[in-house]
Specification:
7-stranded mixed β-sheet; 3-stranded antiparallel β-sheet; 10 strands
Length: 259
């Protein structure tokens, strides 16, 4: 594949603009209006199929119960644990809930060279209401819990850009979170159980040390928990040594989920 090649997906037509550091990684420009592109992807696209999921997946299988625009490349599966009844229960306990829209990317491609480039840049949008919720939560010293690795990446990317502040707007997450990262915003994360070596697993190293993750891995394997998308979940609170000094940080009670 090279620049100028034409691709067809049902009624959609696209042109390869250029290769991006790998023969399977391209910048593709689709023709048509935004509505025509969304409709074409919904009608003719197919979800990523996982070896541990025996039944072929339909598009609606990959949407979380409270999902908004279908912009993710992989299902934001941490959000599968949430439904409207759980949100009502959270609200009754005075837990505030906000959303962001995030084009959740792949955690693994099966190609070692391509996997070394992960995570790819991911566009996201933080609504004004969510940004204000975070601000108020910080002011009242509440915890912020990210539902999914993509949410944690978006919030921490914005906080790094604006020195611990999370304003609203559309941006592109380009950083990698890992063992050497200092978290500024997110106090805890609800995530899928990811395999060692994937970019999502590396992000979990920003919350706890390798010894703790090793014990989690042991329990997951010993008890046949399911990993990756459509698998089981883990809840991690960030360790004290992963935080900014107390005088420079505050915590929040909001919970955030990618749609």
């Amino acid at each position: 594949m090279k620049s100028g090649d034409r691709l067809e997906l049902g009624c959609l037509r696209g042109t390869v603009v250029r290769l991006l550091n790998h023969p399977r990684f391209i910048l593709l420009q689709l023709e048509g209006s935004l509505w025509e592109i969304w409709e074409g992807l919904a009608r003719h696209g197919r979800p990523i199929q996982y070896a541990h999921v025996q039944t072929p997946l339909a598009v609606w299988d990959t949407w979380t119960p409270i999902a908004g625009p279908p912009v993710a490349f992989e299902p934001p599966s941490a959000g599968f644990v949430l439904d409207w009844s759980m949100l009502a229960s959270m609200s009754a306990r005075k837990v505030r809930f906000g959303t962001i829209t995030h084009a959740a990317g792949l955690s693994s491609t099966g190609d070692p060279e391509l996997d070394a480039l992960l995570p790819f840049p991911e566009p996201y949008r933080i609504p004004r209401s969510t940004a204000l919720m975070i601000k108020h939560a910080q002011a009242s010293h509440r915890r912020i819990i990210a539902i999914g690795t993509t949410v944690a990446r978006a919030l921490e990317h914005t906080a790094a850009m604006f020195d611990g502040v999370v304003p609203f707007g559309e941006r592109l997450a380009t950083q990698r979170l890992g063992a050497s990262s200092t978290l500024r915003i997110v106090d805890a994360i609800l995530s899928g159980a990811h395999e060692r070596g994937t970019s999502h697993y590396e992000l979990l190293r920003a919350f706890v040390d390798d010894e703790t993750l090793g014990r989690i891995d042991y329990e997951l394997n010993a008890r046949d928990y399911r990993t990756h998308e459509f698998g089981d979940s883990v809840f991690l609170e960030r360790a004290a040594n992963r935080r900014r000094p107390a005088a420079q940080r505050s915590v929040s009670a909001s919970q955030h989920v990618s749609t």
